[in-house]
UniProtKB/TrEMBL annotation:
It is an enzyme of class 2 (transferase). GO terms for biological process: aspartate biosynthetic process; isoleucine biosynthetic process; L-leucine biosynthetic process; L-valine biosynthetic process. Acts on leucine, isoleucine and valine. SUPFAM superfamilies: D-aminoacid aminotransferase-like PLP-dependent enzymes (SSF56752). Its cofactor is pyridoxal 5'-phosphate. GO terms for molecular function: L-isoleucine-2-oxoglutarate transaminase activity; L-leucine-2-oxoglutarate transaminase activity; L-valine-2-oxoglutarate transaminase activity. Pfam families: Aminotran_4. One of its GO terms (cellular component) is cytosol. Gene3D superfamilies: 3.30.470.10, D-amino Acid Aminotransferase, subunit A, domain 2. It comes from Hydrogenophilus thermoluteolus (Pseudomonas hydrogenothermophila). This is Branched-chain-amino-acid aminotransferase. Belongs to the class-IV pyridoxal-phosphate-dependent aminotransferase family.
């Protein structure tokens, strides 16, 4: 991230942006074990609010538990710290990145003996797949790289090493001019995007791939609630890539990607080739909720 003013929470203290540095021999840089989160704070009438702060912080601690990383801070402390970072940087809407990683006390595969550090940064970040993508939909290609098997990495953990797999897939398809990659699992069934979960719409029904090797997205869970509220039936089942080709609508979900329509997969136009009507309804409701315009979901907003 380029040089700038600002404040980062680092091991319990708010420090100037430029001083939040770490040694090049930090263990996580060499062996890839760092657990992290991505959250968004949105501008609301009552000031900036972090969306589903508790759920993201719980997932961070669960990721650490899966990888046996002892984090010295409680759920409450980490939640307060994330609020403090948004406040300290005077941000009205932003992306928030907490990360726990091993320090430079030792080398070698085992992290035993290295200290776990926690840092939290926040910065403004617009639509991850572009404003136009949110409105018109994006072009997706199935990657030749498969989503890592459930016994290769741990799919419930949001861990840096998994993103090497995502990066291979994303670079492969974006270098061919597509916007984002879809990954299949090692059996050949649809798993997820490089940084998003997938939903299809077929005959008025919402369909999602079984979650086995994909991240259990918090946006995905939000969409489950929205579907229930709008009376749209939801099924989870194994999906093949041609299920996506013949869907009426498809969209990606993620904190960064929000609800992004998919207009093409592997050069097949999906449905009408633009944002479908059910996707549009779900997307509109999503933005009402995150922007504090849906009082029934106020419990998901933490005002900073
Ligand atoms: N899958 C992957 C691989 C991701 O990186 C993300 C983004 N965190 C998601 C799914 C969506 O998760 P969430 O909705 O919790 O951001």
């Amino acid at each position: 991230m380029s040089d700038r003013d600002g404040t980062i929470w680092y091991d319990g203290e708010l420090v100037p942006w430029r001083e939040a540095t770490t040694h090049v021999l930090t263990h996580s840089l060499h062996y890839g074990l760092a657990v992290f989160e991505g959250l968004r704070a949105y501008e609301t009438e009552r000031g900036p609010a972090i969306f589903r702060l508790r759920e993201h912080t719980e997932r961070l601690l669960n990721s650490a538990k899966i990888y046996m990383m002892p984090i010295a801070y409680s759920l409450e402390t980490l939640m307060e710290a994330q609020k403090a970072v948004v406040r300290a940087n005077n941000l009205t809407s932003c992306y928030i990145r907490p990360i726990a990683f091993y320090g430079s006390e030792k080398m070698g595969v085992s992290p035993r003996g290295a200290k776990v550090h926690v840092a939290i940064a926040a910065w403004p970040w617009g639509a991850y797949l572009g404003e136009e993508g949110l409105q018109k939909g994006i072009r997706v290609k199935t990657s030749s790289f498969q989503r890592q098997h459930v016994n290769v990495t741990m799919p419930r953990a949001k861990v840096a090493s998994t993103y090497a797999n995502s990066i291979l897939a994303n670079l492969e398809v974006t270098s061919q001019g597509y916007d984002e990659a879809l990954l299949l699992d090692t059996m050949g069934f649809v798993a997820e995007g490089a940084g998003e979960n997938l939903f299809l719409v077929k005959n008025g029904q919402l369909i999602e791939p079984e979650i086995a090797c994909a991240l259990t997205g918090i946006t995905r869970d939000t969409v489950h609630h929205i579907a229930r509220e709008l009376g749209i039936p939801l099924v989870s089942r194994r999906l093949t890539r041609d299920d996506v080709y013949i869907a009426d609508e498809a969209f990606f979900t993620g904190t960064a990607a929000e609800v992004t329509p998919i207009r093409e997969l592997d050069d097949r136009v999906i449905g009408s080739g633009s944002r479908g009507p059910i996707t549009e309804k779900i997307q509109a409701r999503y933005f009402e909720i995150v922007n504090g315009r849906a009082p029934e979901y106020d419990h998901w907003l933490t005002y900073v």
